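Progress against Task 2.4 (sequence-to-structure conversion) is shown through the following example record, which the project officer requested during the mid-term review.
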Amino acid sequence: MIPSMEPLHISEGDLARDVRSILKRVETGGEVIVERNVQPVAVIRAAEPVRRRERRQRFLDDLLTGVPVQPITVPIALPAGLIDGLSQAKGVRIPLNHSR
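Structure tokens generated for the chain above:
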């Protein structure tokens, strides 16, 4: 928050009516406190940006330090005849999850 800018206290209704100007205030360094019945329920302030390079570097650091990385599974749908033909041609048994 910019030191000279006091937090803006608004109601839920004010937020709902004027989201765009509230977000502009937050983007310029302001802080907004949303209140319900004069009690604070939320604080809105600008998020710190996560840069793509930082995210990629963090991923690579995790890989190098042995931190478990979430595996990605991509389903591939192939016709059963193609799978059977490939397994016979290569002598490889491929388990099938479908019934014949």
